[in-house]
Amino acid sequence: MRSGLSGVSVSLVLGAIVIFSNAAIAQENNVCPTFKDYHTIKNNSRCWYDLAVEFNAPEIIQRMGYPLLTYKVRTADGYILTMFRIPNDHVKNTNARKHPIYLQHGLVSTCATFLGKGRDSLAFILSDAGYDVWLGNYRGNPYSEEHENMTIYDQEYWNHGTISYISEDDLQLESVPVFFNQLPGGTSIKILNHAADFVLGNFRKYNYGRLNPKYYGTSSSPIYDIKKLKLPVYLVFSGQDWVTPEADALNLWRNLPERSRHGMLKINRNVFNHIDMIYGRHAREWVYDPLVRVLNKAISS
Ligand SMILES: *[C@@H]1O[C@H](CO)[C@@H](O)[C@H](O)[C@H]1NC(C)=O
Ligand SMILES: *[C@@H]1O[C@H](CO)[C@@H](O)[C@H](O)[C@H]1NC(C)=O
């Protein structure tokens, strides 16, 4: 429910899927998990080739040989967001076509989060499994910079006063994995503040400080009442995650209403941090494949 992988909801169909060519894939490594690894990038088994370093999200989808549709969505407050869709109507056996599934990226990121691992990317795994995959992009990231009446150069676009645009240069590289070089996702201080609020354990609406009364009619921002959740939640977390520690995940679980507790998966490995959910070498084996099995089972029951 916090930053990162969240709320993914989906099944399995082989054979009916057209095997696409992926000619562009045999490339040299261009991403490593640490600065040190970059010294031996060419011959370092910890590094890999990531299409997302060189290509944007729609280009990756097309280069990987998947169909692509692009949608613009207008929010109630005038932001125009881009959604990409990998439709599943190429799956000839209509029984094998699964539900639509919406993937929402986390903080300081874009939907390329789900596309950067070649065929082992979550978006393509789901598509291969027959799902109709939709990729969202937060306001302010490079795919969603439009607004009905404003541009990203208007302060008001980033909402209220002190908001500024975070570039990669503003991030402390020591603490941010190197592969953020491919994540130029625009994020406002507002969103970062909000995330910090979550990290501090306050699962609440954005805190406008002294402006809270204007927006909420109360001096503090309202807590999200997750007891009201109706949809099933399947939590995937790691015992080794510094962004979303196990205690937070379990706390969220405890606060979910009974009807929403679909299940949870704890990744119990010595090394598996937040970012490994997306870029870890074992992401497919430990996270994505199990997730697809959960989804398949959920929709078939
Ligand atoms: C790459 O590394 C492996 C194992 O570290 C080594 O056996 C191999 O000779 C290296 N190849 C090159 C081209 O350096
Ligand atoms: C954009 O401007 C139009 C015309 O002034 C106005 O009607 C509309 O409400 C504005 N949209 C937003 C989201 O402020």
TrEMBL record:
Q: Which segment of the chain is annotated as a signal peptide?
A: 1-26
Matching entries from SUPFAM superfamilies are given as: alpha/beta-Hydrolases (SSF53474)
InterPro entries assigned to the protein according to its UniProt record, in alphabetical order: AB_hydrolase_fold, AB_hydrolase_lipase
Sorted alphabetically, which keywords does the UniProt record give? Answer: Signal
In Pfam terms, one family for this protein is Abhydro_lipase
Residue ranges constituting the Partial AB-hydrolase lipase domain according to the UniProt record: 58-115
Q: Which GO terms describe its biological process?
A: lipid metabolic process
* PANTHER family named in the record: LYSOSOMAL ACID LIPASE-RELATED
Q: What is this protein called?
A: Partial AB-hydrolase lipase domain-containing protein
Q: Which organism is it from?
A: Phaedon cochleariae (Mustard beetle)
